[in-house]
Design brief:
The chain is mostly helical. It folds into three domains: about 45 residues; about 80 residues, Orthogonal Bundle (DNA polymerase, domain 1), CATH 1.10.150; about 150 residues, hpI Integrase, Chain A, CATH 1.10.443. The strands form two sheets. A three-stranded antiparallel β-sheet has the order 1-2-3, with helices on one face. The radius of gyration is 25 Å and the shape is elongated. It starts with a strand and ends in a 5-residue tail after the last helix. About 30% of the residues are buried.
């Protein structure tokens, strides 16, 4: 059906279709890229879809380079980005040239994905795809982002963030098998998963934790912050003897899975990020000003913190007191 061969420094692609036998020079590409082009041509011949454009790099080939770059620049969030690319974007776009990821193609993909997964998931995948193509433009791989005008799917859901009550936290702690003090530390400091894993013993001060943003351990906002230590956080830190890192070395997905198991055993459900919501929620309920919560949580934008405003003591109650029509 199709084959490749090398002559001198150049690779060639042979294929046969209804129009007869064809041969095309691929130029001085790598053996890996030539193999990708071969698989793409075979996919085209089997599916009847025209997807091979030698002059435009295929998504699969570019994705490898993008992920290598991403891992170097943003190691703290690499596992999440890699999962989106490899599990959700490559299956649909691996053999599609970058410039064929047009508004129409991506909009159809967005519609198909929306029938299978939540709006938030679709939008997260779309943001990743557009970010990849923007990077391709910056690297001069392509001269424009062909799907730049595709908008995120509008969500009609609006609800306050979920958080754990003190009783639910105690249930999680009691159900935890070896992780109790990790969960207690995260609930009492609001540390993100990556921040907790990168916390070094030298950054634990008598009255606060110093969360630094550095190469290989960057915070989401890219800025450092101090988080005051509650009694619960101090107790957890005393029970976590790790050094130089407070937490034992474990992959981010493994930490998340460990929490999900403990939350299920406690019959409360949820994920490890809910511990961060819990920290912010209980601070607001204690009357801590939103601006202070923003600083301690490391929110880059005040709008993120505002979603907890409904939990503030007397929220709107004093305004409506005595109001009667």
């Amino acid at each position: 059906m199709a084959s490749i061969y090398k002559r001198g420094d150049a690779w060639y692609l042979n294929w046969h279709d209804a129009g007869g036998q064809h041969r095309k020079s691929l130029g001085e590409v790598t053996a890996r890229e030539a193999e990708r082009i071969l698989r793409a041509k075979e996919h085209e011949l089997l599916s009847g879809r025209g997807v091979v454009n030698i002059g435009s790099p295929m998504f699969g080939a570019f994705a490898d380079n993008y992920l290598r770059w991403y891992q170097h620049e943003f190691p703290h969030s690499f596992s999440r980005a890699e999962s989106i690319v490899r599990l959700h974007l490559l299956p649909d776009f691996e053999f599609t040239p970058l410039l064929q990821l047009t508004h129409g193609v991506v909009s159809q993909w967005k519609m198909d994905r929306s029938a299978k997964v939540k709006t938030e998931t679709v939008n997260k995948e779309l943001r990743t795809l557009k970010a990849m193509l923007n990077r391709a433009v910056e690297w001069q791989v392509i001269d424009r982002n062909p799907c730049a005008t595709v908008k995120a799917k509008q969500t009609l859901d609006s609800k306050p963030p979920r958080f754990y009550s003190k009783d639910e936290l105690q249930a999680i702690y009691q159900a935890a098998k070896g992780w109790r003090w990790v969960w207690q530390l995260m609930a009492n400091t609001g540390l993100r998963r990556g921040e907790a894993q990168q916390l070094r013993r030298e950054h634990v001060l008598p009255d606060r934790i110093r969360v630094l943003s550095s190469e290989g351990a960057r915070t989401k906002s890219g800025k450092w912050r101090d988080v005051p230590l509650s009694d619960g956080a101090k107790e957890a830190l005393e029970r976590l003897p790790g050094s130089p890192y407070v937490l034992d070395r474990i992959t981010p997905p493994s930490l998340s899975r460990a929490f999900i198991k403990d939350a299920r055993r406690a019959q409360v459900g949820g994920n490890v990020h809910l511990l961060r919501h819990t920290f912010c929620s209980h601070l607001v309920m204690r009357g801590v000003p939103l601006r202070v919560v923003q600083t301690w949580a490391g929110h880059a934008h005040y709008k993120t913190t505002e979603k907890y405003s409904h939990l503030a003591p007397g929220h709107m109650a004093d305004v409506m007191s005595g109001f009667s029509l």
